[in-house]
Amino acid sequence: MSGRPGRSGGSNRIDPQVHILRGTFRPERHAKLLPGGPVWEPTAADLEGLGAAGRRFVAELLAVYELNRLDAALAVEGAVLQDRLAEVRAGRGTASAKERRALNRQELAWSRALTNIVLALRSRL
Fold this sequence. Notes:
It contains 5 helices and no strands.
């Protein structure tokens, strides 16, 4: 039988550090409870190799979330993938049918990688 409404749960909460020690840590469930560290402010060096799409991706993330250094690494990798997707999509206009098929495969691979990064960020934030 389950507990009473309003009186069950919460009192037996386990600290995330204990979950880590026990080996029961689940990032999608417990990562929000860990201290995040200092907030990341991107420097010019962090954004140096990014194009317009990548910079826009980072700006949109920073408008919604406060990122720490670990999250920032994921964000920069996502920005690189955004730039690669933009390049693939821009190159499609003048490509032959054979080149378009190759670009479609490349776009699918970059999209999947970007999706994984976004999901990892969502589970952390």
